[in-house]
Design brief:
Layout lengths: L1 E5 L3 H14 L4 E6 L2 H10 L5 E5 L1 E2 L2 E2 L3 H4 L6 E5 L16 E3 L4 H18 L5 H5 L11 E6 L2 E6 L3 E7 L2 E6 L4 E3 L4 H7 L5 E3 L4 E4 L3 E6 L5 E5 L11 H11 L6
Parallel strand pairs: 1-2, 1-3, 3-6, 6-7
Antiparallel strand pairs: 4-5, 8-9, 10-11, 10-14, 11-12, 13-14, 15-16
Helix pairs in contact: 1-4
Length: 255
């Protein structure tokens, strides 16, 4: 039984490997993958495994992106940190989804279910199942761990007025005027923040809609944004982002 693990959290991966060997003694774990890109490369250069355990949230996005790049005609057991209510949409599919931390008894039930499916369906093509998967609600970052001196504290994302880059260092500015360095660049932050609340106005700033104090028309259809707390940097929406910014203000989204 050739098994592939796609999991980007090392403790979760080690726990899963241990439980898999306990539940499926014949398991031969042929790889442990940590990202969408590496998974796509693995499927393109290796024979299909007999079973895949796949985390939904990976560092570079949702694992369902894998199926847009390659055909994975193998049974898959998804693992996820989503609450149980988020799993209901998937119960219509004859594939299991295990809530983290994965429990041995849950994996045993999933393994039993898959054995029944494989016996009843014979040479059934599993890839067909995943083409119809409903979208997974994406989780956005709820807080950030920041460091000041020898201390570490957490900042709720709702308390962040904006993120910005200064002298090649990335910062968050809280709504009460405090500034802390963060370990994410603005490209990464765009993926982590809720798009209804945060918008990247240019290469230097991602702003919270509640931090906008005033807006003025600027040249070439651009918009100048004044923020609260104030900043010494220019906060002008770039030309290429102006149309999307206006849609964002109105609660719409870019086509």
């Amino acid at each position: 039984m050739r098994i592939l693990l796609i999991e980007d959290e090392e403790p979760a991966s080690k726990r899963l490997q241990k439980i898999v060997h306990e539940v499926i003694p014949q398991a031969d774990i042929v790889g442990t993958i940590v990202s969408i890109s590496s998974a796509v490369n693995w499927f393109r250069s290796n024979p299909l495994p007999d079973l895949v355990f796949m985390d939904i949230n990976l560092a570079d996005g949702l694992s369902f992106e894998i199926f847009r790049e390659v055909e994975v005609d193998a049974p898959i057991i998804f693992t996820t940190a989503f609450d149980a209510y988020a799993l209901d949409a998937f119960k219509v599919n004859s594939v299991d989804y295990l809530l983290k931390p994965v429990k041995k008894e849950d994996l045993e039930q999933a393994w039993t279910k898959l054995q029944k499916i494989m016996k009843s369906k014979g040479d059934h093509h599993f890839a067909e199942r995943y083409q119809q998967l409903p979208p997974v609600p994406k989780e956005f970052k709820k807080r950030f761990a920041v460091r000041f001196g020898e201390h570490i504290k957490t900042i709720a994302t709702d308390d962040v007025a904006y993120f910005f880059t200064e002298n090649k260092v990335n910062f968050l500015q809280t709504r009460d005027g405090k500034k802390y360095p963060v370990d994410f660049n603005l490209d990464q932050l765009e993926e982590l923040l809720h798009p209804e609340l945060f918008f990247r106005i240019n290469r230097q700033f991602i702003i919270n809609i509640h931090a906008i104090a005033e807006m003025r028309a600027y040249s070439k259809s651009r918009v100048q944004v004044k923020l609260n707390p104030m900043t010494q940097h220019d906060t002008i929406v770039s030309v290429e982002r102006s149309a999307a910014f206006k849609q964002w203000l109105g609660g719409g989204k870019e086509d």
